[in-house]
Amino acid sequence: MKQSINRSKVLIAAAAAVWTGLLAYLAYVQIGRWKHYEREAFGQQGETLGLQAARGRVFEKGGRPLTLNRSCCSIRILPQWARDKDTLAGILVGFGLAERSAITQELTRRKRLFWFKRQVDYAAGDSLRRVLVERQFSNCTYVDDDNARLYPYGEFCANIVGFTGEDHGLAGLECEYDSVLRGSGGWVLLQKDAIGRAFPYPSFPAKRPVAGLDIHLTLDLDVQQVCYDALEQRVEACGALKGSAVVMDASSGAILALADYPGYDPMRFAAFPTERYKSTAVSDQFEPGSSFKLVVCAAALESPDSARITRQTFDVSSGYVEIANRKIHDVHNNGVLDFAGLFIKSSNPGCAMLSTQLKPERYYELARALGFGNMVGIGLPNEGSGWIDPPERLNPLRFANVVFGQGVTTTLLQLAGAYLCVANDGAYVRPYLIESVRRSGRVVRRFGPTRLRQALKPENARRIKDILERAVTEGTGVLAQIEGVTVCGKTGTAQKVESGVGYSRTKSRMTFVGFFPKERPRYVIAVLIDEPKTERFAGTAACPVFKQIGESLILLDRMRSRLLPEASSGRGDKHADRTPPSDRG
Questions:
Q1: Cis amide leading into 262 (omega within 30)
Q2: Do 86 and 139 fall within a single domain?
Q3: Are both 553 and 526 inside the same structural domain?
Q4: Which helix (H) or strand (E) holds 229?
Q5: In which band, very low, low, confident or very high, does the pLDDT at 322 lie, cut at 50, 70 and 90?
Q6: Which residue segment(s) compose the domain that 348 sits in?
Q7: Total number of domains in the chain
Q8: Per residue in 427-472, pLDDT tens?
Q9: Which end of the chain, N or C, is more open, meaning fewer C-beta atoms within 10 Å of its C-beta?
Q10: Does residue 492 lie within any of the structural domains?
Q11: 403 vs 255, 302, 420, 495, CA distance in Å?
Q12: Please, is 223 exposed, middle or buried when counting C-beta atoms within 10 Å of its C-beta (0-12, 13-18, 19+)?
């Protein structure tokens, strides 16, 4: 009897131990391992659907969108999970996504998840999604909602807006402000039924995507197209390599146009050379030639000895001047010139003679005050800063060359900014391209005119205006004249440097930078024509582009709000058939 009782106790203890172990294990599963089993269950019954954020858009000054988003689908395939690759290939072929041989090759070659097709038409993608579920291929082929980026104005604005790759910006504003435009994606958990169809479930968590911010520019699309058309006509007519133009509001520094020709189609960017992706006017650094003489003119007027210097005459009748045993030549014999005549006739020897009376330190400080040697910072990638030697490197010969734009580099945007400074009576106003950043129409951050410094005395800036006016009416810029308004500006012809050769005798960059009207300037325009085949000087290569753009701007103003006085379009301009004196830059 006693032995039986002991056996019962042992059995009861064993059973209690087993049940205690089971309870402990259940507690471990429920408390310690529940996350693991939740993941396992979700892998069989659930699906995570990524939600892509809508990319922010870019708008021009008048509110017209320069970028658009179109709903589409993208297809991913996990080939090792496909139960019948031939059948799957047949389904994809039926939707016209590729040739059967190409699809079969990809399914055989690939060993892990890959993007099969991006930016598929949304209706086709949605139909494919349903077919994949019905044919039980949704476990290995995923159709995701996506957005395609469209550029309605194509090549006109490509150098500014840029383009995107599969999921990020690759050029222009799309690249520089990718983090602003991209937004942040979200996700939602779905529950799958027995045949693999996924449905939203109220208790499952979700994270909504946050759309990217919109960028509004100062760019005027009409002005941009005017510039692009003018450049296209001139580049093609004179067989040039390329051309660029910058147009700014003279009072605020707002960039109204930033055009480059030839351009490229951002929807087919891979078909064009990569050097076209950048904005040439912002990124290309070049020797400016005589348009840089603005700096030596300003330096002489700002000099403590300005009264003496500006009363002098400069005898350049020999056609050259010798400095440090090197001769600096003029294209033509200009005889004896007064101070203004140095710039009206664009005399290199005369400006070299002027340099001997100036201190390199003051010249350097003034050049920097006018914006040279520093990036402007308008928000486009690959912006150039240019280069000017510090004073200690400006020996007499190098200084003499620098003052007429040789041995110094700049960008077209920097040149435009320096002339903008003169137009504003010596106040350097920083050029800007971005007007505001907005979310759903609400302004998050606004940008505007920024007056950085008073680079020139107002009276000296007005005196430079007088000289620039005469450079157009009497000097090398006569083809830039616009009937009815007074134009101020300066040409520049700079020989290009060839590796192992030095300065080329046949290849040049030609610029004209100016503004109008002289009193209360409205527009600053800078034009660059690179390597024209049929023209030798900027007077005939770049000035006609300035004139064409300027006349079109006047017509636009008259059509819009008549901000400028009535002015003839200049189609019958009395100067149209005049050949300007050669530019000596």
A1: yes
A2: yes
A3: yes
A4: helix 221-237
A5: confident
A6: 221-264+280-436+449-560
A7: 2
A8: 999 999 999 999 988 999 999 999 999 999 999 999 999 999 999 9
A9: N
A10: yes
A11: 28, 15, 19, 15
A12: buried
